[in-house]
Write a structure and sequence with these properties.
Blueprint: E1 19-23, H1 27-39, E2 43-47, H2 50-59, E3 64-68, H3 76-84, E4 91-95, H4 100-109, E5 113-116, H5 121-137, E6 147-149, E7 152-155, E8 160-163, E9 166-167, H6 172-183, E10 188-189, H7 191-199, H8 207-220, E11 230-233, E12 237-240, H9 253-263
Parallel strand pairs: 1-2, 1-3, 3-4, 4-5
Antiparallel strand pairs: 6-7, 7-8, 8-9, 10-12, 11-12
Helix pairs in contact: 1-5, 2-3, 6-7, 6-8, 8-9
């Protein structure tokens, strides 16, 4: 975290940019995050553990949740799962644990972004801006028509998706990713392109794209181990093929993920900022 804390936050002006719920049991970290978000024009609520977060979530549905992974009584994974049971809500996970396994699990739980401590509060505000901007842009303009092909059908206005007439339970970002691919069938996109076009990020951890592709395959493919719709294009990225008569992809989802790591650029490095004195490291 940055050395200087923001000035004591004032009540947000009318027309605040949205409501954010910050869940972190470290009062120093929470205070700084709340302060920066408040100064950026957000209405902010705060909770120090999982049960309190769920209570606040139920009482006042936020536009976005900044959720610490390491919470007492109930970890961030479980909190995220329970929130998702009530419908899609953008979630940014905060954690001091940068292991790939934890990061992937967080994304698979449904998190839209994953920020590792120590971090810059200003960068976190930018991430919140980006995730909310994409979430709101996901609401289509009037007259947006359905998207169909390969047994898939999406209704952007209703935010509903189907595979051979069967409803698909897609997260916010999975829906956006599938909609983007359906708008560009037969075209290969790199992970950097997908991150920019679907997530609206010019930087970030490319494993975010990898995890969402794997989860999406698990929901739209007849055999996710041999994907016939969302193909891996070696050395490039992914392509949506609507002609399922073509033989299946030669590699399963796990090997495709390994290919992603070979094909993609290294993730952008985090911006380390030393926490203020007295802040505990977790």
């Amino acid at each position: 975290m940055e050395n200087s804390q923001p000035a004591r936050h004032q009540a947000p002006a009318q027309g605040a940019r949205g409501r954010v719920l910050v869940v972190d049991d470290d009062p120093t970290v929470a205070e700084v995050v709340v302060g920066y978000l408040h100064r950026a024009g957000y209405t902010v609520e705060q909770a120090g553990d999982g049960p309190a977060a769920l209570t606040r979530f139920a009482a006042h549905r936020p536009d976005l949740v900044v959720l610490d992974l390491m919470l007492p009584a109930m970890d961030g994974f479980e909190v995220c799962r329970r929130m998702r049971e009530h419908g899609p809500v953008p979630v940014i996970m905060l954690t001091a644990r940068g292991d790939e396994e934890d990061r992937v699990l967080g994304l698979e739980t449904g998190a839209d972004d994953y920020v590792t401590k120590p971090f810059s509060p200003r960068e976190l505000v930018l991430r919140v801006d980006s995730v909310l901007r994409r979430a709101r842009a996901a609401v289509p303009a009037d007259g947006a028509g359905p998207l169909c092909g390969g047994g898939l059908s999406l209704d952007p206005a209703a935010r509903q998706a189907y595979r051979d007439g069967r409803g698909l339970a897609l997260t916010l970002r999975e829906f956006d990713l599938l909609a983007f691919l359906l708008r560009h069938p037969g075209k290969a996109f790199g992970r950097e392109e997908l991150m920019r076009e679907v997530w609206g990020w010019d930087f970030g951890d490319l494993s975010t794209v990898t995890v969402h592709i794997r989860r999406l395959r698990g929901k739209v493919e007849t055999d996710p181990a041999r994907p016939r719709l969302i193909r891996t294009v070696w050395g490039v990225g992914y392509r949506l093929d609507l002609d399922e008569e073509d033989p299946g992809a030669p590699a399963d989802a796990d090997r495709a993920g390994a290919g992603d790591r070979r094909d993609g650029a290294e993730p952008a490095a985090a911006v380390p900022v030393v926490p203020p004195a007295g802040s505990r490291s977790r």
